[in-house]
Design a protein that fits this description.
The complex is a heterodimer of chains A (765) and B (99). Helix content of chain A is 65%, strand content 4%. Chain A has 765 residues and is mainly alpha-helical. The radius of gyration of chain A is 33 Å and the shape is globular. Chain B has 99 residues and is mostly helical. The chains are: A mainly alpha (765), B mainly alpha (99). Chain A binds chain B through residues 738-744, 746-747, 750, and chain B through 18, 21-23, 91-92, 95, 97-99.
Chain lengths: 765, 99
C-alpha cells in the first residue's frame, strides 16, 4: 500500500494505559473464580458466593478503569481522527495452515458493553445472595452465573470471530443451566431445553457466517493488513474496502443475522425468551433482559460494516434487519397485553426493546441502538429485580399479577418507586434514560429514509406505554389479591420483625437491603444514564457519540512487528479533513482502509420529540382508564368483551396462543422433520439393521461352533495341556539343583556371573 | 605399566577366593576366602588408580580395608558364638535348609 502520499500527516500517538492494555484480564477473573467455586466453593463460609461477587467486583473495577482510559484516549485524538482500538493478540492454536488467535479488541463499543455487563453482574450477584439464600444448588448457581459473566466478557472483547463464538456458546450453555436451575419441575427443564435448542438453531448461522467471512476475507486481510480472516478488525476493513463480492457478503450477513435472531429473541425465534422466565429471577434479570440477549445486537454492532455493506443499509426502504426488528417490536408488544405473569410481560417487553435495537442498527442508527443497549440494561434489570423483590417478599413466589398482586405500593415503597422510575424510562418519558435512546432510534430511523419503520417504532412506543401501565396497575394499585392480601390487615409492624423466611405465610413487606440497594442503584441509573448522550441539549452533551462511535476516517496503517504476537499500529489520516470528507461506506477508499462507515445523525427537533411524548402519554392514559374500569370497577361494558365481540375474541385467542408459533414449531416443524426421520429410522432399524444383525448372529453361531470343535478343543486345550506337561517335566529335571546347600547356590551364582562377564567381554571386543 | 599383570593377579586371587567360598566346609576358611575376594578388588582399584593418575582408587581401597577389618571382626565373633552353641563350625552340619 502506498503509505506516504503527499497529504498524509503523522499524528501524535494516542493515549493508552494499563487498564486498556490489560483488558483481557476482565474475563479471566470470573473464569478463574468459576473454577474455584466449582472446586472449593462448598467448603467456603458463604458457599462460594463470595468468590462470585468478588470476581465480578474485580471485573467491574478493571472495566471501569478501561472505560476511563478509553475516554482519555478519545480525548487525546483530534476531532476527525480514527481512534484505533487497543488490540492484542496471541496465537492460540494452529491446524493445517489455519491460525486461530486469541486476544482483545478494545474500542468504545466493547468498553461500553464490558462496563454494562460487569456492572449488572455485580449487582445481580449481590441481589442473589439474598434472593437465593438457602437454595439447594446455591454454589452451582453462583458458579454458572460467574461463568456466564466470564463468557460474555470474553465475547465482548474478542478480537476475532473464533473467540467471539466461544464466548457466545459459553453464554448459551450457562443460559441453559440457569433456566433449568430448578430442574425438578418438568416445566423448567422443558423451558431450558427449548431455549437451548431454539438458540442453537440460530447458532448454525453464526458458524456459517464466520466460515464464509473467513474464506472470503482471508486473502485480502493477509495481504493488506497482515491479519487473518477471523480478525474483527480485518473483516471490518475488508467489508468497507469495496473488494467483497456483494452476493457473498450479503449471504454472510444474513447467516450472521440468523444467529442474532436466535440469541436476541427476534421474530420468529423469540418464543424461547418468555419461557426462559422459568429460571430464577436474577437470571432473568441478568441473562434474559440486560446482557445475554443483547449479544445478537452486539454482534451486529461489532461487525457493522459487514451488515452495512451486505444488506445495503444506506439504501433506505427496507432490509432484513429492519423488517425483522419492526415485526418483533409490534408482535411482542401485543403479546405483552395478554400475560398475567409479571415476568412474562417484562420478557415480551425485552423482546420488543431488542427489536428497537435491531431496527436502529438496520436503519443506520448505530449509536442510538448501542446507547439503547446501555440504558435498557439498567432499567430492564431494575424492573426484573423489582418483580423478584415482589415475589420474594410479598406474593409468596408467585408471579401472577391477577391472582397474587395488587395494592403493593404501600407495603413496598422502595420497590414501587424504583419500578415506576424504570417503567417511565422504558416508556421513554422525558427526562428518563429511555427517552434519549429510544426516541433517538425512532428519529434516526425516519431520518435515514425508513419512514414506514419510524411509524412502527411510534406504534411500538404507544404499546409499550400501554402494557407497562397495565402491568403497573395490576401490581401496585387496586386492591390486594391472593397471596398479597395474606394478612394485610394487621399491618406493617408485624412484618418488620417477621423473620425472613419466604415460604411460611407472612404479610407482604419490603425486601432486605441486599435486594433494595441494587434496585435503588439501578433506578438512579435508569433516571440519569440518558444524559450521557442527551441530544436535545446540544453537541456538548453528546458524550457517547464522542467516546463510543468509531470515527469513519480513512486510515493508512503502518505495521511494525513489535515482539511476539503484537504489532504496533500507527494511524495516519489520509487527508487533513479526515472524516469530514471520508468516502467510508459509500465508495472504495482510495489510499487507506476504513473501519467504520460514515453514518448520518438526525438533528434533534423538539417538535418530533413532542409527538412521541404525546403518543406515550396517550398510551399511559388510555391504558390507565381501561385498567381502572376493567380490573377495579369491573365495568360491564368491558368485562367479557372478548367473548362477546368475535373479532376481538379472535385476536385475544391468537395472542393467548402466542400466534400459534409454538404449536407451529412443535406440531408442524418438529413433526414433519422429526417424525419421518424417526419412522425412517424405525424402518431402517427393523429391516436393515435387524437383517444384518440376524445374519450376523447366525453366521457367528456357525463360526463359533466350528471354533469350539477345532480351535478350542484341539488347539487351545492342547496347548494348555502340553504346556502343563512341559512345565512338569522341566520341574522334575530342575529338582536336583534345589539341594538346599548354600555353597551349591553360590557356585551357580558365580558361574552365571562369570558367563555374563565373558559375554560382556566378547561383545565389547 | 604392566596393567595386565596386575589384573591377572587380581583375577587369580578372585577365583581362588570364590573357590574357597564354595568348596570349604570350615567357616573360618570361608571368611578368609572372602578376604581374598575383597583384596582382589582392592588390587583392581589400585591398578586403575595408578593408571589414571587419580587418588579415587586409593581412597576406595583404604575404605575397603577398613570395612573388611570390621567385617572379619563381626564374622569371627559369629563363628565363635556358633561354636559355643553347636560345638562345630562345619558349614554342612550347620545348614538347616532342606533340598
Amino acid at each position: 500500500m502506498n503509505i506516504f502520499s503527499g497529504e498524509t500527516e503523522v499524528l501524535a500517538p494516542l493515549a493508552t494505559g494499563w487498564f486498556l492494555e490489560n483488558a483481557w484480564l476482565i474475563p479471566v477473573i470470573p473464569a478463574i473464580a468459576f473454577a474455584l467455586i466449582i472446586l472449593i466453593g462448598k467448603r467456603l463460609p458463604m458457599k462460594g458466593s463470595e468468590l462470585g461477587v468478588l470476581s465480578m467486583f474485580g471485573s467491574l473495577v478493571l472495566s471501569a478503569g478501561a472505560g476511563y482510559q478509553w475516554i482519555q484516549r478519545t480525548n487525546s485524538a483530534t476531532e476527525e481522527q480514527f481512534v484505533a482500538p487497543v488490540i492484542k493478540s496471541w496465537n492460540w492454536w494452529q491446524s493445517g495452515g489455519f491460525e486461530f488467535g486469541i486476544g482483545q479488541h478494545i474500542d468504545g463499543l466493547s468498553v461500553l458493553v464490558l462496563f454494562v455487563v460487569a456492572f449488572i453482574s455485580t449487582l445481580v450477584q449481590v441481589y442473589s445472595l439474598e434472593y437465593l439464600r438457602g437454595d439447594r444448588r446455591y454454589t452451582h448457581f453462583f458458579a454458572a452465573l460467574t461463568l456466564f459473566s466470564g463468557g460474555m466478557l470474553a465475547m465482548v472483547l474478542a478480537d476475532n470471530t473464533i473467540l467471539f463464538l466461544l464466548g457466545w456458546e459459553i453464554m448459551g450453555l450457562c443460559s441453559f443451566m440457569l433456566i433449568g436451575h430448578w430442574w425438578e419441575e418438568d416445566a423448567n427443564s422443558r423451558a431450558a431445553l427449548k431455549a437451548f435448542f431454539t438458540v442453537r438453531t440460530g447458532d448454525m448461522g453464526l458458524l456459517v457466517g464466520i466460515s464464509m467471512l473467513y474464506f472470503a476475507a482471508n486473502d485480502w486481510t493477509q495481504e493488506n493488513l497482515g491479519l487473518s480472516g477471523f480478525s474483527i478488525r480485518g473483516i471490518s476493513a475488508w467489508a468497507l474496502s469495496g473488494e467483497p463480492n456483494s452476493t457473498v457478503i450479503m449471504i454472510a450477513a444474513i447467516a450472521l443475522f440468523i444467529a442474532c435472531i436466535g440469541k436476541s429473541g427476534q421474530f420468529p425465534l423469540h418464543t424461547w425468551l418468555p419461557d426462559a422466565m422459568a429460571g430464577p429471577t436474577p437470571v432473568s434479570s441478568l441473562l434474559h433482559s440486560s446482557t445475554m440477549v443483547v449479544a445478537g445486537v452486539f454482534l451486529v454492532a461489532r461487525l457493522y460494516p459487514v451488515f452495512y455493506v451486505g444488506l445495503d443499509i444506506p439504501g433506505g426502504g427496507g432490509n432484513l434487519i429492519v423488517i425483522i426488528g419492526g415485526i418483533t417490536i409490534v408482535i411482542s408488544a401485543a403479546l405483552a397485553f395478554v400475560q398475567n405473569d409479571i415476568k412474562r410481560v417484562l420478557a415480551y417487553s425485552t423482546v420488543s426493546q431488542l427489536g428497537y435495537m435491531m431496527l436502529g442498527l438496520g436503519a443506520g442508527a448505530w449509536l442510538p441502538a448501542v446507547f439503547h443497549i446501555f440504558t435498557h440494561a439498567f432499567f430492564k434489570a431494575c424492573l426484573f429485580l423489582g418483580a423478584g423483590s415482589i415475589s420474594h417478599s410479598a406474593s409468596h413466589h408467585s408471579f401472577d399479577m391477577k391472582k397474587d398482586m395488587g395494592g403493593l405500593r404501600k407495603v413496598m415503597p422502595i420497590t414501587f418507586v424504583t419500578w415506576i422510575v424504570s417503567t417511565l424510562a422504558l416508556c421513554g418519558v422525558f427526562p428518563f434514560s429511555g427517552f434519549f435512546s429510544k426516541d433517538e432510534i425512532i428519529d434516526n430511523v425516519g431520518y435515514n429514509g425508513y419512514n414506514t419503520f419510524m411509524i412502527i417504532g411510534l406504534v411500538g412506543a404507544f404499546m409499550t406505554a400501554a402494557y407497562m401501565t397495565r402491568a403497573t396497575y395490576l401490581t401496585f394499585f387496586g386492591e390486594p389479591r391472593g397471596a398479597s392480601a395474606g394478612h394485610a390487615d394487621h399491618g406493617d409492624a408485624h412484618a418488620s420483625h417477621d423473620a425472613h423466611d419466604g415460604h411460611s405465610a407472612s404479610t407482604p413487606h419490603e425486601s432486605g437491603l441486599l435486594i433494595t440497594v441494587p434496585l435503588m442503584i439501578l433506578a438512579v441509573l435508569a433516571l440519569s444514564s440518558g444524559f450521557l448522550n442527551a441530544t436535545p441539549f446540544g453537541e456538548s452533551w453528546e458524550r457517547m457519540k464522542l467516546w463510543v462511535e468509531p470515527r469513519p476516517a480513512e486510515v493508512i496503517e503502518e505495521t511494525h512487528s513489535g515482539g511476539p504476537g503484537e504489532s504496533l499500529i500507527i494511524n495516519l489520516p489520509s487527508s487533513e479533513e479526515g472524516a469530514a470528507k471520508t468516502v467510508c461506506g459509500s465508495a472504495q477508499p482510495e489510499s487507506g482502509v476504513c473501519y467504520a462507515p460514515k453514518l448520518k445523525h438526525a438533528p434533534f427537533k423538539w417538535s418530533k420529540a413532542m409527538i412521541s411524548m404525546v403518543i406515550v402519554f396517550l398510551g399511559i392514559a388510555i391504558s390507565w382508564i381501561l385498567s381502572v374500569l376493567l380490573f377495579t370497577k369491573r365495568d360491564p361494558r368491558l368485562v367479557g368483551l372478548t367473548q362477546r365481540v368475535k373479532v376481538l375474541g379472535f385476536g385475544h385467542k391468537l395472542l393467548v396462543n402466542k400466534y400459534y408459533l409454538d404449536d407451529f414449531y412443535e406440531k408442524v416443524i418438529v413433526r414433519t422433520v422429526a417424525y419421518p426421520i424417526s419412522r425412517a429410522a424405525y424402518w431402517f432399524n427393523q429391516n436393515i439393521l435387524d437383517g444384518i444383525l440376524h445374519g450376523f448372529a447366525n453366521n457367528t453361531r456357525k463360526i463359533s461352533e466350528w471354533v469350539y470343535k477345532n480351535v478350542d478343543q484341539r488347539v487351545v486345550d492342547g496347548t494348555v495341556n502340553n504346556s502343563a506337561t512341559f512345565t512338569k517335566s522341566v520341574g522334575t529335571a530342575a529338582q536336583p539343583s534345589q539341594s538346599g546347600k548354600v555353597s551349591q547356590y553360590g557356585a551357580l551364582l558365580f558361574s552365571a556371573a562369570a558367563v555374563a562377564a565373558l559375554v560382556l567381554v566378547i561383545i565389547n571386543t | 605399566m604392566f596393567v595386565n599383570q596386575f589384573l591377572f593377579l587380581a583375577a587369580v586371587l578372585f577365583c581362588i577366593g570364590v573357590y574357597g567360598v564354595i568348596a570349604r566346609k570350615n567357616a573360618v576358611l570361608m571368611l578368609m576366602s572372602i578376604e581374598l575376594i575383597l583384596n582382589s578388588v582392592n588390587i583392581n582399584l589400585l591398578t586403575f588408580a595408578l593408571r589414571n593418575g587419580s587418588p579415587d582408587g586409593h581412597t576406595f581401597a583404604l575404605y575397603i580395608i577398613a570395612v573388611a577389618a570390621a567385617e572379619v571382626g563381626v564374622g569371627l565373633g559369629l563363628v565363635l558364638l556358633v561354636y559355643r552353641n553347636k560345638k562345630t563350625i562345619s558349614l554342612d552340619d550347620l545348614s538347616e535348609m532342606r533340598g
